[in-house]
Amino acid sequence: xxxxxxxxxxxxxxxxxxxxxxxCVRASATTVxxxxxxxxxxxLTWPLPEDMSEAELEKVLxxxxxxxxxxxxxxxxxxxxxxxxxxxxxxxxLLWKEYRERHPERGYSRSHYCELYRAWREEIxxxxxxxxxxxxxxxxxxxxxxxxxTDPKTGEIRQAQxxxxxxxxxxxxxxxxxxxxxxxxxxxxxxxxxxxFGGVPELIVPDNLKAGVTSPCYYxxxxxxxxxxxxxxxxxxxxxxxxxxxQDKSSVEKAVQQVEREILAPLRNVAFFSLAALNxxxxxxxxxxxxxxxxxxxxxxxxxxxxxxRPALRALPADRYQYADWKRQKLPPDYHVEVDGHxxxxxxxxxxxxxxxxxxxxxxxxxxxxxRIASHARSQAGRRGGKTTATxxxxxxxxxxxxxxxxxxxxxxxxxxxxxxxxxEAILESRKHPQLAYKSCEGVLRLAxxxxxxxxxxxxxxxxxxxxxxxxxxxxxLENGLEDDLPADSAxxxxxxxxxxxxxxxxxxxxx
Length: 512
Description:
alpha+beta, Nucleotidyltransferase, domain 5, 5 domains, six-stranded mixed beta sheet
């Protein structure tokens, strides 16, 4: 479903043709046209509603189709050709007979079988000369030659990788050195290349480097999520070259060769002690390379760029792409996903579901089926093992527990009665740390369910008069029905006060 949204983005935002979109997503132009027609027939508009889930979009586009007849079985023409070339005496007629034995009812006739094979053979034997439109394609790859850089403090030698990007129409070239070919350097090189060209092409044609293409499938390669994220930020489409098909990126193959010969080879005897110094020399030689006159054409790469590619490139977005990694993680029972040792909450209802987590230097975003369901500020280093939790992601009982505070307990108690509020406040003040009184306060408030608010109010009033600021005293008072048995100094007029002298009362003198 992610590819469907990509097709519609390329169609309605990037304005690409069906054939261009087909090359980007590795689908046939007919399939792309069918998806666009389904989109229009369903009455949808771009951009899609934010609340439309992947399941809803799929249901709208593909309503329960009627059963279709199975297509006729098609032989593997590559295997047919292999059999013809590998075994003496094997003919197309013999292979057709074996094919019909395997498919007696739905197999092709002999004449149709032979026509299909010849058409396939003629198609693979054709070599097409590629002509690139202005501002259409940017080819990217790494040079096969690395450059040694020596650490001036330790003497350690590291091999720097050289990234090369070239525009198809003008052959205007960009090159830079990075420490690795890993994802962060790969994305950073693209961002700096766009800044160098001063605009964005319609298509990027990379090799099937692991940093850019997660699954280098011949028919339908899957892009790395960060790479696709960057492409969406710049509004550019990515059409990876086919596996082991150098002709798909012949422009960058030639550019890599020229960079190796005209830039890296002259630097082979130069000692570099920093990546910055190496890139400074690369920029100097790159400028000469782009301004050098063609041998068989008028002008140079620079003049062709100014004439052809620069006017056709689309404007850069207002902000540079901020690098972000992606990871896929199942939401555990505590409804927190882990990023670099810190934990970030997601809605507890999605426990056990697979979530996509996008994390940059500043933010952590969590997605479910393409929809963002949570966003957090990235925790600073040093808070490893900590948690960042949004209360809206918590179950009610967890939220109530997390939101406990002296103020909330007093407020809840005051709503039941003044004496109840006074007792809860007194219990909180009697403890060195208010957290130690939370259970006592919770117990007092729960007594209202068992004995009623009026009785609890009377029991709390009695406890305040006796300065007995404990849950156990209030409960004992209610269990024995003593809430109306007030001390002598507070008894109403006309009633017999409680005795202040009794055989069982020791008095103050007992302790002297």
